[in-house]
Specification:
The complex is a heterotrimer of chains A (about 475), B (about 100) and C (about 500). With about 475 residues, chain A is an alpha+beta fold. Chain A has three domains: about 5-300, no CATH class; about 305-415, no CATH class; about 425-480, Arc Repressor Mutant, subunit A (Orthogonal Bundle). Helices cover about 40% and strands about 20% of the residues of chain A. In chain A, the strands form four sheets. In chain A, strands 1, 2, 6, 7, 10, 11, 12, 13 and 14 form a nine-stranded mixed sheet that branches. In chain A, strands 5-4-15 form a three-stranded antiparallel sheet, with no helix packed on it. The longest helix of chain A has 20 residues, at about 230-245. Chain B is mainly alpha-helical and about 100 residues long. Chain B has a domain at about 5-45: Histone, subunit A, CATH 1.10.20. Chain B has three helices and two strands. The longest helix of chain B is centred in the first third of the chain and has 18 residues, at about 20-40. Chain B is flat, with a radius of gyration of 22 Å. In chain C, a hairpin with a 5-residue loop joins strand 10 (about 440-450) and strand 11. By secondary structure, chain C is of the alpha/beta class. Chain C has helices at about 10-15, 20-40, 50-65, 105-110, 160-165, 185-190, 225-235, 250-255, 280-295, 310-325, 340-355, 355-370, 375-395, 420-425, 430-435, 465-480, and strands at about 45, 75-80, 115-120, 175-180, 195, 215-220, 265-270, 295-300, 400-405, 440-450, 455-460. The longest helix of chain C is centred in the C-terminal third of the chain and has 21 residues, at about 375-395. Chain C is built from 16 helices and eleven strands. Classes of the chains: A alpha+beta (about 475), B mainly alpha (about 100), C alpha/beta (about 500). The interface between B and C is large, with 54 and 73 residues. Strand 9 of chain A pairs antiparallel with strand 2 of chain B, so a sheet runs across the interface.
Chain lengths: ~475, ~100, ~500
């Protein structure tokens, strides 16, 4: 069912579009040779170009251009072979030149399309309007000094991609799913690390509300929201605020707002109030950006497999359910890990183990897929021991925990602890006979029709065999001896 | 087109130049003289003419992505009118 | 012999022959500056000790036999070029305390060639002006006088300090920059040669920007040959400037002797303007005759959008300037005036730091880019700019170079033409179109007015064809035989 909000005057639909600012992964800045690395001593990663000194000129970074093209290709978008840079003029303490170099009406990437999946399994398409390259600003810090704000220009000039969506988003859930999906694609492409805490990805959220069948109403822009959860909250909080304004007879004013995560509400941003005449004009220090077809084709040829394609391939190639494939492709590294384990083995068993015990162990130990609690080779060996019936599934869980704890290989653990499963039918028969003899009353109950006790006997036998009995053979023997 | 005094004030605000009342009138006259002069462009038929934004008629060269600059905070800060440690300093901004 | 009245080419020979040393030459210039600069105000900042140190290094190179044609040549550097460790003001109070920690590419190349920096030459504030009266450090006096008059005349602008310094023998040559005529018009007003090369020929890196799509560096000197030598050292591809052209620098000096035989020289009808003085048109006729006599073919051409050049210029240049000058906000460098808050600090800093002309241009530029006016002014101007470029491209299908006057009048008096900004802007009417089209253009001294003031002719060439410009200019120079000197000069 479609998401909607109930007001006093009826049902409202939420209309939302996102402008995602994603920091480009590169060594140096978009227009200068200073390092683009996060952090560093104040004003260390700064050139005279970044600080807007007299006579300094921008020179564009090839890799940043390539990253934007890769991202465009990943968003199934049109690559504009001719694009242009413009100046966006406004004064701010952390904007050294008094303008930001951006792309206004000729962006490097045009329209594209992104597929998102909702909780109920529905697939929805969100249109991409454009992607353009621009410079990041520096950082104003207001709590360092009693009467002054201080400025660090380390971020100034770092390349950003602004990815603008169509107003196709209709609920907080969709907004969250879209942001997560973009983050996933960029991480796959290696064009942005998607680290929202460090600010390498943030979103401006455009929200408006309307009644069914209406045209768009006035929208507000909520600036710099820096987590998926906050984006989802901001959409809802802002929609509710606007509904209240409309329903109390007011008019929503187009403005820039701020999301206050502590209060869970949006508020007007005073400092940006008179800054909306940006006086865009073509950046005269740069020439048009002209890309050769071969440059784009070369990047396309080297594009990694993206999550949607990978997920479909996993379903086909490894015969695993669509949902499980989605879990496994969430991160490129996880998908690679899965493939290294599943190749030549029972692919479903591999999927179950990774999304089950392996993930659980990873979370519990605070490890990551790059630094896993159990190596792919070790996990593969464990699966082999299960498949060739050296151990059974129950024992495998114990072996796995031992692997996590000690780092030992599963084969060695099985040998050292004598955990091989018992397939010797005489030994199993003996154990069954012993259990039945020790429980004559239960045997009588079973025979008088209490079928459920079958499991009890199997359990007792397994226990007597320290869990090492081959489950199928044990079942068979119990059945035979109970007659 | 001609400018009124309110527009002169608005433009001064956008350009972050403080103007006093006496200056507004002078600027208004001077700016209107300039705008009056450039209005002759209205005579020119530019239908189908592409705008020419730059002096150079070529495609842009791309720089290799290597770190060649930075790590000179003292030079960057040497001309600063005010600083706090390794930061530039400005009057406190309330967001 | 006077060490001050030589050409660069002649000085280089004398230095090589050890007739005098670079230190002696520099000391003579330092002394001349000390004597005359208080009157002419051609330099904002003088650097006598630095100059002597550089001269010693030059003498060492000469002795070692590693000197080039510019080693030991003392120059005035327009105070728009950032010079490492030497205050750079752009003639603006807002940059009064600014000492760049970096060197512009053009001056770095000149230093590498062994030139000596005598000081930073005065100019119109941020190069915005045609008379050097907008400098925050006082006007420059033109060393030339009208016959029998001691009235102070302007040297032209914006490179007025560079022009006055070279004309008064306070430097052998100078760097200038030209956005709409700022090399050519002051060269004409002071009896010098000066060339604005093709846009992209000289790097703009480290030159305080006025209007990025128009600004070009170029030399000013007492002969066409000296300009060729200087431009050779100033030119060349610079990876730090995206608009710099990736082209080899030709041997400009080699073009000087080519002559004009067989060249087609265009005479644009639209440069015959109402109210142009009779002696300017007479000089132009003379120039035509000189070239014809030397074997050039004279072709009447049309540059139909010439009259709109100034209007385009006075939209495009202020628009770019309004943005380029936004960085002067009192935060990272330059002067600051404290305020109640950040915005107040900006507004007070910029109100106090910028002069009236700069404020006017920032205001106009801000207005023509602002919401609702962009299409009517800026976009329209860009389209007409394209028509002006087409005019030149069409003309250059028929001719090799174009000959025009440089300015509509000789140097005028301080205080004249100052009734309103537009009258002053009309000075640039002949120089602005070449700037808008990005083509090279040179002014050469071609004669004297009835009042005894120098007048210039302008040679305009095709993109990156400075060689033809030099060939034509040298031919005109030979024919004109201009030897007059200003009455105020160092001996």
């Amino acid at each position: 069912m479609a998401y909607s909000l109930e007001g006093k005057t009826g049902t409202w639909e939420v209309v939302c579009g996102l402008e995602i600012h994603a920091q480009v992964i590169s060594e140096s800045k978009l227009f200068s040779g200073a390092s683009a690395t996060y952090g560093g001593a104040p004003n260390a990663h700064v050139s005279f170009v970044d600080a807007g000194f007299p006579g300094m000129l921008p020179v564009i970074n090839r890799e940043c251009v390539a990253q934007a093209v890769r991202t465009g290709l990943g968003l199934k978008a049109r690559i504009n072979l001719v694009s242009r840079f413009d100046r966006k003029n406004y004064f701010y303490a952390d904007l050294p030149n008094g303008y930001q170099i951006s792309q206004f009406d000729h962006p490097i990437v045009g329209t594209g399309d992104v597929e998102i999946e909702l909780q109920d399994g529905t697939i929805k398409h969100i249109g991409i309007t454009r992607l353009h390259l621009e410079q990041d600003a520096g950082k104003s810090i207001h709590d360092q000094h009693a009467s002054k704000s201080v400025i660090d220009l380390n971020r100034a000039g770092v390349a950003l991609m602004e990815i603008v969506s169509e107003p196709d988003i209709r609920s907080p859930e969709e907004a969250g799913a879209y942001l997560r999906k973009i983050r996933q694609i960029l991480r796959y492409l290696g064009t942005c690390d998607g680290n929202m805490e460090e600010g390498s990805m943030r979103a401006d959220v455009n929200v408006s509300v309307r009644k069914a069948g209406e045209d768009f109403r006035t929208r507000c822009e909520i600036k710099n929201v820096n987590s998926v959860r906050f984006v989802m909250h901001a959409v809802e909080a802002e929609a509710l605020r606007q509904i209240e304004v409309w329903e109390s007879g007011g008019e929503v004013r187009q403005e820039t707002r701020l999301y206050d995560s502590a209060r869970g509400e949006t508020r007007s941003m005073r400092s940006k109030e008179d800054a909306h005449d940006y006086r865009y004009f073509p950046e005269p220090d740069l020439l048009p950006l002209v890309l050769e077809e071969e440059f784009v084709a070369g990047l396309k040829a080297k594009l990694p497999e993206l999550p949607d394609e990978k997920r479909r391939r996993f379903c086909d190639e490894y015969a695993i359910p669509f949902y499980d494939a989605g879990v496994l492709v969430a991160e490129q590294a996880t998908a690679d890990f899965y493939e290294s384990v599943a190749k030549g083995r029972d692919t479903r068993l591999a999927a179950n183990w990774i999304s089950g015990d392996f993930f659980a162990a990873m979370n519990r130990t605070g490890r990551s897929i790059e630094n896993p609690p159990v190596s792919g080779a070790a996990l593969g060996e464990l699966l082999d021991l299960i498949s060739d019936k050296t151990i059974n599934g129950r024992i495998a869980k114990d072996v796995f925990e031992e692997m996590v704890e000690t780092g030992a290989m599963p084969g060695a653990i099985v040998e050292a602890k004598g955990l091989r499963q018992v397939t010797d039918t005489s030994a199993i028969d003996a154990a069954v006979a012993q259990v039945l003899a020790a429980n004559p009353d239960k045997v009588a109950e079973y025979k008088s029709g209490k079928d459920k006790l079958f499991g009890f006997f199997v359990g007792q036998v397994m226990k007597a065999m320290q869990g090492k009995g081959n489950p199928a053979l044990v079942n068979e023997a119990v059945k035979a001896q109970l007659g | 087109m001609s400018l009124d005094s309110a527009t002169v004030r608005r433009i001064a605000k956008l350009a972050r130049i403080r103007v006093d009342d006496a200056e507004v009138g002078v600027l208004q006259t001077e700016l209107n003289a300039i705008l009056g002069y450039v209005d002759q462009l209205n005579e020119v038929n530019v239908e189908g003419v592409a705008p020419l934004s730059g002096g150079a008629q070529m495609a842009m060269r791309l720089r290799e992505d290597t770190v060649t600059d930075g790590e000179q905070a003292e030079n960057i800060l040497a001309n600063a009118p005010d600083r706090v440690g390794q930061f530039f300093a400005v009057p406190k901004v309330v967001e | 012999m006077s060490l001050l009245n030589l050409t660069i080419a002649g000085t280089a020979q004398a230095l090589a022959a050890k007739k005098f040393s670079a230190v002696e030459l520099t000391a003579a210039h330092n002394a001349a500056i000390a004597a005359l600069n208080p009157r002419l105000n051609a330099y904002i900042t003088t650097t006598p000790e630095l100059a002597l140190a550089q001269a010693q290094a030059a003498d060492a190179r000469i002795t070692a036999g590693t000197a080039g044609p510019l080693t030991g040549i003392p120059l005035a550097i327009k105070d728009l070029f950032c010079t490492a460790g030497v205050r750079t003001t752009a003639a603006s109070k807002i940059l009064e305390p600014f000492v760049p920690p970096y060197e512009s590419t053009v001056t770095r190349q000149l230093l590498e060639a062994g030139t000596i920096c005598l000081g930073k030459a005065n100019l119109d504030e941020f190069a915005m002006g045609s008379s050097n009266i907008t400098s925050g450090y006082g006007p420059v006096e033109n060393p030339w006088k009208r016959n029998g008059s001691d009235a102070r005349l302007v040297p032209g602008g914006s490179s007025g300090g560079s022009a006055a310094a070279v004309a008064a023998r306070l430097a052998l040559g100078a760097t200038g920059t030209d956005t709409g005529g700022s090399i050519r018009q002051p060269a004409a007003f002071t009896g010098l040669a000066g060339i604005k090369p093709t846009y992209g020929r000289c790097s703009r890196y480290g030159i305080v920007a006025f209007a990025s799509s128009l600004d070009q560096a170029g030399p000013m000197a007492r002969t066409v040959e000296d300009c060729a030598i200087l431009l050779g050292a100033m030119s060349g591809f610079d990876p730090h400037d995206s608009t710099s052209a990736e082209r080899a620098v030709p041997d400009f000096g080699a073009a000087l002797g080519r002559g004009v035989k067989g060249l087609r020289i265009g005479i644009p009808a639209e440069y015959r303007m109402d109210g142009m003085s009779g002696e300017i048109s007479a000089l132009w006729e003379k120039g035509v005759a000189w070239l014809r006599e030397q074997g050039a073919e004279i072709v009447d051409i049309s540059l139909p959008h010439t009259k709109y050049g100034l209007a385009v210029y006075y939209i495009v240049a202020p628009a770019e300037a309004s943005s380029n000058l936004a960085r002067y906000d009192g935060v990272r460098f330059g002067a600051r005036v404290d305020g109640e808050d950040l915005i107040d600090m900006y507004e007070r800093t910029r109100a106090a730091g910028f002069g009236a002309e700069v404020k006017r241009r920032i205001m106009i530029g801000t207005y023509v880019l602002s919401h609702g006016y962009y299409d009517a002014y800026y976009l329209k101007a860009q389209k007409v700019r394209n028509l002006i470029l087409r005019d030149f491209n069409n003309a250059f299908e028929r001719v090799d170079a174009i000959l025009t006057p440089t300015a509509p009048s000789a140097a005028f008096g301080l205080g004249e033409k100052m009734d309103d900004p537009v009258t002053m802007y009309l000075n640039d009417v002949f120089t602005v179109p070449a700037s808008l089209a990005g083509v090279p253009a040179m002014s050469i001294p071609a004669g004297l007015s009835a009042e005894g003031l120098p007048l210039g002719l302008q040679v305009i060439g095709k993109h990156f064809d400075e060689e033809t410009v030099f060939a034509v200019s040298a031919a005109l120079e030979r024919a004109a035989g201009f030897t007059a000197m200003p009455s105020v000069r160092a001996e």
